[in-house]
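Case 415 in the screening queue. Each case pairs one protein sequence with one candidate compound; here the compound is zinc ion. For every case the pipeline is the same: read the inputs, emit a complex structure as tokens, and attach any notable structural observations.

Predict complex for case 415.
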Amino acid sequence: MTNRKKLKPTEGVFTANWIPYGYMYSPTAPNGIVIDPETKEYVQYIFEAYITGKPRAQICAELTKMGAPSPSKRKEQLGYEFRNGHANDYWPMTTLNFFLINPMYIGDYVDGDVTIASYQYINHAIPEDAKLPNIIHGHHEAIISKDLYIQAATLYHAQKDFRTSSQKKSNSLPPTPFFNLFHCGICGRQMYRAQNVTKKLGCYSAYICSSYRLRLPDACQKKLYPLNDLIPQVHKAILQEFKLSQKLASQVGEEKSTSYKKTEAYFQSQIDIAVDAVRQNSAAYNQLENRMEKGKITPEEYNTEKAALDKEAVEFSALVVTALENIRTFRKVCSYKNKWLQLFSDFDEDFVITRKTSRKYLKHINLYPDKPMEITFQESEERDKLQEYLSLQKGKGSGRLKRHYTRPTIEKTEE
Ligand SMILES: [Zn+2]
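Case 415 output:
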């Protein structure tokens, strides 16, 4: 009975989006996976070329030259989902890492950390705190032999261990906690991160407009933004955003009371005004028909007035739709359902900027040579709307309430 668990789709049965390169999804296959005849040989080529000592960059260049579809390209061809917005027409070097240690290619299924699994195959030392993955042997058809896999994985780890240990010895550069967030405030282009080690500054990392770096004809002026200057500014801004969210959350809580209801009533009144306008328009139309039937107006007068009423009918219907949308947005934004409030609710005094957190909270940062950076936070539209609604509730002039729209004027049609 214990083996039943392995039959669960998450543990060993593939779905289309999780199929590794070289295989295809097949709902009729026992575990959902069959060999992809179009790409199988490229997988074999990768392993065979790698164990001859060919550099990975060269293997990638040759795969591209051979016309081998890149992993993302193949996913696109097969109609599977893939992470990046567009498929690569070339083989990025990092993709090879996924192949060289993956026991998938010898027909085994790994539920857990593939790197740890590969250590097990080659008798590499396993870190003490590592969680051993669950491996299902003979899970599906193999593309390469176990011998070839062991050779490749051994070589890969040997090179990797060497790379990390030699990096530690040298002056390693600080990793950036930001990923593609910085843009040039002047031209809008992506900022390029330049790295250098100097005697005076030590490890030195700074952003510079990519137009300068690429020597474009309309390049921005040379201006370096050191990474170490940017981090505290961004950190401070995120902390402020956390604090603001706490403040606004408390107001949302208390504003469920009278002033929330007052504002809600205001939005309701806007619906009533719009609905009333539609009604009056219909009534005016009936009266017009009446007058026409009784011969009180000429066909020309009738046509002119009818055209005006038709135009109004369109406008007033749109008002009803807008008013309904407004009250729905108000209720959603001015509550704990507000996406921005939810995002920034996990306030943490010890907040640290990492690649993960910077992506989570930040959307875009513009850098300027002569003024402070401009930060766009995730879900900031919801924050702006919330602030607007809260200031409406604070009654910062009833004039602001009227800003949405006022009662439409309707030409009175006297009987
Ligand atoms: Zn620029």
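Case 415 observations:
- Confidence is low (pLDDT under 50) at residues 1-9, 166-171, 396-403.
- Residues 184, 186-187, 189, 209, 211, 220 surround zinc ion (CB under 6 Å).
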